[in-house]
Write a structure and sequence with these properties.
Strand content: 25-35%
Largest sheet: 6 strands, mixed
Structural class: alpha+beta
CATH class: Alpha Beta
Radius of gyration: 17 Å
Distance between the termini: 17 Å
Bound molecules: zinc ion
Order of helices and strands: EEEHEEEEEEHHEHEEHEE
CATH topology: CNF1/YfiH-like putative cysteine hydrolases
């Protein structure tokens, strides 16, 4: 993803075929969260700059629920992932340390974005989204492209013994020797394991290689850096 700028606000952004996806940064003050008073203004700014008629979000609860933005969609639905098939309508998730995951099939014109913290990663929300692509919309796994966005990486994500035990005994992750470096958990390795188990080719899996906790050149909001702040990274995707 490339760093782009609008009115001194910096985004990581990429376009592939008919899909556009972006991540806000903290290089300038641009935290986004529904409870912040500039929320509507900031969402409007993103809509204008990326030419979107709407941006849909869900009320995030660290679940493995993926919600489709169809005619039944209403504001306030609880979940941690969204799927969109209509053009120029964005979907987005809020993160600070947790992993934003982008998925799309540009042939079938389906796009998704997920919030995958340790709970969503443990419960494999990414598998739930891939299942919808494949089972409901008949995506070929060879056409599903995944980008794992900026999150707290193994360098900085130390966890307690209880969580370590839980992940080391996960039915899928226990087979991957790289999910821990001492007591530091790699959510990325866990998500990779889940994605590859769905037969997505490894070359379709891309990593936006920033740790939100220690990245110096591009800055991000990190819960562990500032637990009292509501500022969040906003990761969004749309079909053009
Ligand atoms: Zn780090």
């Amino acid at each position: 993803m490339k760093l782009i700028e609008f009115d001194s606000k910096y985004f990581l952004y990429k376009e592939i075929d008919n899909i556009g996806f972006g991540v806000t940064t903290a290089n300038s003050e641009f935290g986004i969260h529904p409870k912040l008073e500039n929320y509507d203004k900031n969402i409007k700014f993103i809509k204008e700059k990326f030419n979107l008629s709407d941006i849909f979000v869900v009320s995030q609860i660290h679940s493995d629920i993926v919600i489709e933005c169809d005619k039944n969609f209403t504001l306030g639905l609880e979940g941690d992932g969204l799927i969109i098939r209509e053009i120029n309508r964005g979907i987005g998730v809020f993160t600070a340390d947790c992993v934003p995951i982008f998925l799309f099939d540009s042939k079938k014109r389906i796009a998704s974005v997920l919030h995958s913290g340790w709970k969503g990663t443990y419960n494999e929300i990414v598998v739930k989204a891939i299942d919808i692509f494949v089972k409901k919309y008949h995506s070929d796994v060879n056409d599903i492209v995944i980008y794992i966005g900026p999150h707290i990486k193994v360098c900085c994500y130390e966890v307690g013994e209880e969580l370590k035990y839980k992940f080391n005994n996960h039915h899928r992750f226990q087979k991957n020797a790289n999910i821990f470096n001492k007591n530091n958990l790699s959510l990325l390795e866990c998500i990779k394991t889940s994605v590859l188990a769905c037969n997505i080719p490894i070359y379709n899996l891309n990593v936006v290689d920033y740790c939100v906790h220690c990245s110096k050149d591009v800055k991000f909001y990190s819960y562990r850096n500032d637990p009292n702040s509501l500022n969040r990274i906003f990761s969004f995707i749309f079909i053009k």
